[in-house]
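LOG
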Amino acid sequence: MSDREKLSGQTLNCPEKPERTIVLMSNEIMVRTATPNDAAQCARIMFDAFENIATTHGFPIEPQTREFCDFHMASALATDGTFALVAVRDDDIIGSAFADERGAVVGIGPVTVDPVAQDAGGVGRLLMQGLLDRERDRQAAGVRLVQTAYNYRSFSLYAKLGFEVREPLSVFNGTVPRSANPSQTVRPATGVDLNECNALCRRVHGYDRSDELAAWTGLGMAQVVESSGRITGYATGLGYGWHAVGESNADIIALLQSAEMYLGLGFLVPSRNTELMQWCLNSGLRIVQQSTLMTIGDYPAPQGAWLPSIVY
């Protein structure tokens, strides 16, 4: 049975995280559950892996700095709802893979392998198989990831594992075109807004991302769009690590226009959304790279406007 068959059509009924430690062995490589003590090694490998592939292809390094990788790995391994695996050879970590399990749909990433070990026994495949086995056991509704389009190696791996291409994505960045529409109000999200935002996300995607939204709202990052006295869009933030949902492109544009800056490499736009793509290009924003949204399991076609995060 393929991984897609294992996950497709299942509804969410996720128990608490399995307590067992995942261990896989292949060619003297062990895959085990990550711990906070692994953060420094995972961060070093994350930057080295992205730097190696980006430099080879002449693209910007996605995590941008080693300091960001240090922060990201320490934060991820301390976040409830994040699960991670590491691959170990001769007591040295040579790769890691993360899963955001805070919602019905699981987001995978980052998945990174030390450049010096990328030909050593299918490290990336072992890590991905470990995560897919876990999400099958958890009966996750689906698994999603965003793959960097020029990385043919990772694309081939995910395709072999059963992931389907759902959306080509364009990463935009540049000077923020600040403006405001008098019929719309953009303001910080509060706890009172969460139910309405989650209902909007379910209308657009079929699922909500309630725990993720609550976390960013609590940190003061999330924004909402109000039109005619009701919420018609929200963003957990604007940049590589955040997502946005709107009833229409006008809601997404209002959020983009409200931002002081776009964080990280930029924000991801579904490339088939011609209207939004044209607005970005006509506003002077530039495409810095292409990515691909890939999924296993349930994927209702979005019914509205949206921006994915680097996870999904």
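LOG (cont.) second protein
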Amino acid sequence: MSDTEPIVPLRRRQSGAAAEHYKARHGDAAQQVTFDRRELNTILDVYGLKVAQGEWRDYAMNFGRDTAEFSVFRRTSEVPLYRIVKQPKLTRKQGMYSVVAPGSVVLRRGHDLKQVLRVLHRQPKLVPVL
């Protein structure tokens, strides 16, 4: 290759509809909210404990543009018992993590995932009858 030959790029620059299609597909993936490995390990530790106790049997994950959700089910055909939600937009306000019960009741919200998940560790206590 001599100095006078033009350098040809390996990839042509896309324009028009092809470029918009690429941006739509790959731009959305970059905007998607997900759980990182540390967060997922923390959630799966609680999930594994509850499965071992026989309380939970199934889970589902949903990742969107604004939120990431980890839903917990007693049975697959039911509505989720709890949803662990990550909303990065609320980081500076109430905290990005929350545990939501059926009926969209927020049980706990905060900045630290471990502290938020403590609401799921609570067990009902037996009260002695007098």
